[in-house]
């Protein structure tokens, strides 16, 4: 009898976070007030949200209450976003290096899920937010299409249009042409207006 290898979502998560980090590093201080496709955030607030998400992942992985972490990190100097992101990422990688976390139930502000599912979900969130930053700063050509394909497949499974209430992070699907690039289709699927 052959057993299937167990899926480790951390390498793909690292790719998505690498991409996010590249986008954050490229942001200039004069771009921080640009609006983003993520309606609640300008670039500064979106970067603060991305740092906060890493802090939530670390807190939840360490067994703490991620609800106590603000949705947007503040108090970060305009020239220090990349450093803040890298520091938060290091904490996530240290905590989530423990293989046992992948099979443990992890409590997040919005659900309690197996660790593997948590890592997958945040992989796709970082993929979308990388597009948000790239769209707001004119760097769309720098994104990895493989990450978008994986995110689009995942969102179709766990955030189908018929299950959306309009109260969460996903708006109604926006119609785009069938030949649109994968990031445009991903953005439209999660309710952005590319």
From TrEMBL:
SUPFAM superfamilies: DinB/YfiT-like putative metalloenzymes
Domain (Mycothiol-dependent maleylpyruvate isomerase metal-binding): residue spans on this chain: 14-134
Gene3D superfamilies according to UniProt: dinb family like domain
Matching InterPro entries: CHP03086, DinB/YfiT-like, Maleyloyr_isom, MDMPI_metal-binding
Highest taxon, organism lineage: Bacteria
Name of this chain's protein: TIGR03086 family metal-binding protein
């Amino acid at each position: 009898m052959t057993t299937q290898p167990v899926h480790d979502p951390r390498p793909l998560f690292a790719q998505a976070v690498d991409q996010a980090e590249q986008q954050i590093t490229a942001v200039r201080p004069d771009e921080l007030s640009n609006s983003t496709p993520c309606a609640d955030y300008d670039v500064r607030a979106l970067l603060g949200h991305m740092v906060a998400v890493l802090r939530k992942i670390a807190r939840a992985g360490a067994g703490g209450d991620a609800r106590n972490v603000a949705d947007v990190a503040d108090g970060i100097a305009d020239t220090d976003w990349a450093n803040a992101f890298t520091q938060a990422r290091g904490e996530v990688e240290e905590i989530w290096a423990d293989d046992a976390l992948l099979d443990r139930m992890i409590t997040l502000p919005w659900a309690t899920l197996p660790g593997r599912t948590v890592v997958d979900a945040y992989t796709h969130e970082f993929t979308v937010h990388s597009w948000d930053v790239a769209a707001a700063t004119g760097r769309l050509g720098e994104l990895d299409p493989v990450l978008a394909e994986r995110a689009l497949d995942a969102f179709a499974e766990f955030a189908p249009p018929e299950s959306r209430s309009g109260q969460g992070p996903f708006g109604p699907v926006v119609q785009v042409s069938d030949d649109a690039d994968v990031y445009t289709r991903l953005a439209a699927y999660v309710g952005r207006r590319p």
